[in-house]
Amino acid sequence: MLALFFIFTFITLMISNAYAIDLQPTDLIPLKSDLTLIQFSYLQSDFSKSPSLRYNTAQSLVRLGRSFEIEKHPSLFYVQTPAGYVHPQEGFGASKGDSGIGDTTMLLAFWPYANRETQTYFAVGGYLTLPTGSFNGNRAFNMGANRYQSAIQAGYQTPIYKNIEWSAAFDTLWSGDNHDYFSATAAHTHMEQDPLYTLQTALRYTFNPTYAAGLTYFYTEGGDKTINGVANHLPIELQRYQLTLTGQYSFGRLTFQYGEDIQTENNYKEDQRVIFRYTKVF
Prior knowledge:
By secondary structure, the chain is mainly beta. The chain has one domain: Porin (Beta Barrel), CATH 2.40.160. It has one helix at about 1-10, and strands at about 35-50, 55-70, 75-90, 100, 105-115, 120-130, 150-160, 165-175, 190-195, 195-205, 210-220, 225, 230, 235-250, 250-265, 270-280. Strands 1-2-3-5-6-7-8-10-11-14-15-16 form a twelve-stranded antiparallel beta barrel. The chain has a three-stranded antiparallel beta sheet with strand order 9-12-13, with no helix packed on it. β15 (about 250-265) and β16 form a beta hairpin. The termini are far apart.
């Protein structure tokens, strides 16, 4: 049973945890007031520690949002819930995967500065993630994290040359405690995690009113875990990139994204991430 506990602790460094709040293209451009946003996304990722230790995930996400004003400043609220699966591929023995509903995230965003003439924007957002997802302390793979999470993010965007826009954002993610982190024994395991910090910066080139492409770089560090009062001393440090292609049509916006980790410490390496999105504002 002790060996099973160490295996569980090792493979859950990545599973069922958010490590960054990825901004999508145009997220820092506020919608006009009193509009409704609906977005459908499909995300698939492959992770590994070595060629013989791999797992993959897939999620379908639905996001519903509404724009409004606070003291004449643009604002946005949305709620997003995923459903999908996480499956071990190799090296996990008898460990089983999980499928079902994931954790629900809500956002309240506010633009203290939004100049549509110069296309310069500064926004702040507060996130709250609720433990609505499937979770079982006897499993290493779970769709949910069994804890509350909150984050604050600030982002800035401005044109820098002709059709090129530059943006940057910084966020801090706090996680509540998981009191059933490992419950295969009578004594449940209590897990705490330090805050995670992420910096992201992006360039976006607009070819014409329909098509645009972007490249984003992410740097994340922090998130050391404490198990039953004993610190792991294994803070996460990772760098990754993401390519984005968008097409804006009369029926909505189509987005394709591809990314992967560049360098990973104390964490599973994301070998590839593929995302398809459909967004409609009305």
